[in-house]
Every structure is written in structure tokens, then in C-alpha cells.
Amino acid sequence: MTDADLRALLGRIAAALERMAPPPPAPVDLDAADAFVFEPSGRLRPVNKVARVELELLCGIDRVAAILLENTRRFALGLPANNALLWGARGMGKSSLVKAVHAKVNAERPRALALVEIHREDIETLPRLLQILAASPRRCLVFCDDLSFDQEDTSYKSLKAILEGGIEGRPPNVLFYATSNRRHLMPRQMIENERSTAINPSEAVEEKVSLSDRFGLWLGFHPCSQETYLEMVARYAQHYRLPVEPEVLRREALEWATTRGARSGRVAFQFIQDLAGRLAVPLG
User: Fold this and answer.
1) Disulfide-capable partner of 94 in 67, 148, 176, 179 (CB 3.0 to 4.6 Å)?
2) pLDDT tens digit string along 91-128?
3) Model confidence over 145-198: pLDDT tens digits?
4) Distance separating alpha carbons of residues 8 and 15, to the nearest angstrom
């Protein structure tokens, strides 16, 4: 084969590879919406209507709500603010609070913040997302719901460097909010295994729990009392103007919680959805 033949062959191979390659992602326009979902391909998919409840409807978490709202307001103003980890009981409004706070701040300062959700299974692409967001002047809340790591998962190490400690660090226009049922983002068994098998147990445990230390704010959510649960139900019923007597509402809400074996904001809203359906009242 002559050099000319070889160059022609290589040219055809290169052209074939270009045809097989996926098209480049469309340019990112962070002004297209106030909320986005980050896809592994590098695309930010706009979300025109976010599934959320109003901040005033969240009950029993007034203190943590006030802290997160103030932290987010400072960030929207360009002032120093902390990454936040919302941890604790299931169904107590962790992710709802993040979305409600974002809506509240944007209502006060229109289009001040973009909310960008990254899924747990895509957390390894977080550096790519931050690179995209850093190129925009818009301030962004990156949100990961139900963040946790299992025994063999090592992606937490890259997350640690991004939050604090890496050479680039977090872009100044980005803040990271995460929710988790675990305070240290890892199961206790995982930490205990490290303690029992490591040459230096204290250093091994420190490596595992230091991820949560990268969050400046730890906001705890705890199981609610019966009184708080009933207040949640009453607020929802009043907000959606459900035609039901208070005593009937109380009795049915308690029965619903008993059948679920739990009291939480999620259980309260599920009851309201059931009640609204029976009363033929839309919740839109």
C-alpha cells in the first residue's frame, strides 16, 4: 500500500468515525428557565413547571426553613453562603424545602437563581456540570436528592474535592444542596467495616465521614408529633379549600396515618390527595 493509499484509507476511517459520533450538545442557555435537570450527555433540560409546594405550607420545620432561606438569600445577593446537607427522617420535607426556598427567593428577586437537579446515579458527572455552570454569569443552586453512597462506591471522593479542597473548588456562582436520610451519607455498616478492617481505624472512619463535613450547613429533619401532623393536614385542607368538617378531617387523617404506620409531611399530603379525590376537588 502506497502512502497515498494509506492517507486515503485513514481519511475514510476518520470520516466514518465522525458520522458515528453523537452530535455536540446544544449551547446551554441558563436563561431559558428557572429550573433544569442535568443529563449525563451534558444537556441541561429545562423544567417549565417544578413539582413543589409553597414554603408557607411546610409545617414543623420552621427553624431549618429559616436557616436555609437566609443562606439562599445571601447567595442570591452575591454574598458568602454555605453548601447545605438536609438529612433525617423520610417524608419530612427535605427536598420540598429546597424547591420551596428556590421559588421564594425567585419571587423576591425574579430570575435570581437557577435550580439545577443532578441525579444521584450521575454524581460522577458533577465536575462536568460545574464546568458548564461556571461559564454562565447566572447564579445556580445544584440540587441532588437522596444522596448516599454504598460499600463499593468511590464517587464520594470526587464530590469531596469539588465541595471543598480541590484545586479548582466550587465555582463562585454555584451552591450545592443535597438531601439524604443519612447524616454522614454512608450506611453505618460501611463505616463500621472500615473501622474493623483498616490498619488505622480512626483514619479510615475519618475518610468516610469527612464528606459530610464539606457541607457548611447540616440541617436535621426529625419525625413529627401527632399535633404537627394534624397541623400539616389542616394547612393543606385550608389551602386547597377542601369542604370537610374539622372533626371529620382530624379523624380521617389519624386513621390514614395509622394505616401507613407513620406521620410525616409526605403522609399528610398523600392523605390530602386521597381526600381531594373523594371530594372531586382538583389540586392543580
Assistant:
1) 179
2) 999 999 999 999 999 999 999 999 999 998 888 888 88
3) 988 777 666 666 667 767 765 666 789 999 999 999 877 665 555 544 544 554
4) 11
In degrees to the nearest 10, what's the CA dihedral of 115, 74, 174, 96? -30
Per residue, the 3-state secondary structure of the chain, as one string, reads CCHHHHHHHHHHHHHHHHHHCCCCCCCCCCCCCCEEEECCCCCEEECCCCCCCCHHHCCCCHHHHHHHHHHHHHHHCCCCCCCEEEEECCCCCHHHHHHHHHHHHHHHCCCCEEEEECCHHHHHHHHHHHHHHHCCCCEEEEEECCCCCCCCCCCHHHHHHHHCCCCCCCCCCEEEEEEECCCCCCCHHHHHHHHHHCCCHHHHHHHHHHHHHCCCEEEEECCCCHHHHHHHHHHHHHHCCCCCCHHHHHHHHHHHHHHHCCCCHHHHHHHHHHHHHHHCCCCC
- Domains of the chain, by residue range, sit at 35-221, 226-279
Q: Which long-range contacts (CB under 8 A, 24 or more apart) does 168-173 make?
A: 170/83, 170/130, 171/130, 171/133, 171/134, 173/133, 173/134, 173/136, 173/137, 173/138, 173/139, 173/140
Q: Quick one: 35-221 is in which CATH superfamily?
A: P-loop containing nucleotide triphosphate hydrolases (3.40.50.300)
Angle CA(19)–CA(45)–CA(144) in degrees, nearest 5? 120
Question: Given a cut of 60, is residue 205 above it in pLDDT?
Answer: no
- Give yes or no for a contact between 83 and 215, defined as CB atoms under 8 angstroms apart: yes
CA angle 211, 213, 217 (to 5 degrees): 120
Task: Please state the separation of Cα 263 from the chain's center in Å.
Answer: 22
